[in-house]
Amino acid sequence: MNTPTMVASLIFAVVLVLVIGWLIRLMMRGWRRRGQLQETLIGTLPAVPDMVGPPIVAATRGQYLGCTLAPKWNDRVVAGDLGYRTKAVLTRYPEGIMVQRSGARPIWIPQDAILAVRTERGIAGRAIPTRAHDGVLAIRWRLPSGTEIDTGFRADDRSEHTRWLEGDNT
């Protein structure tokens, strides 16, 4: 490779790296701005109670897929740490549903805020290819601010979703 070609290649590589860095910065800025706008809709999440009764539906291991603004299954909530996927354990008590997420704060969904527990094919940009619409367990609930959101959860063993549908006392 001759010197002018090498210099041109290096200049092109530097420009390409700068453009990619600029695009990543714009995406991060958009994510943060969207989170700030959603914070007014979301408000504060319900506090986790000190004491709860015995579980109605036993702990289910799986993956927390995030929350979306209802009824739009693809409008991810990015306020706080609600938009991050993580491993989680879902347990239902008479007082509500506990979502214990690894590396994030637990989410408490009070019983009186639960509107529906159902299965869906996808949520928050995550579509699960299955024959039936049972890939994601979606919990629709109303926040104290009045906003309705869907919380998505995918059990490690998808047959456990039926326990959640049978245990739906809403």
From TrEMBL:
<feature type="domain" description="PH">
    <location>
        <begin position="42"/>
        <end position="166"/>
    </location>
</feature>
<dbReference type="Pfam" id="PF25362">
    <property type="entry name" value="bPH_11"/>
</dbReference>
<feature type="transmembrane region" description="Helical">
    <location>
        <begin position="6"/>
        <end position="24"/>
    </location>
</feature>
<protein>
    <submittedName>
        <fullName>Transporter</fullName>
    </submittedName>
</protein>
<keyword id="KW-0472">Membrane</keyword>
<keyword id="KW-0812">Transmembrane</keyword>
<keyword id="KW-1133">Transmembrane helix</keyword>
<dbReference type="InterPro" id="IPR057446">
    <property type="entry name" value="PH_bac"/>
</dbReference>
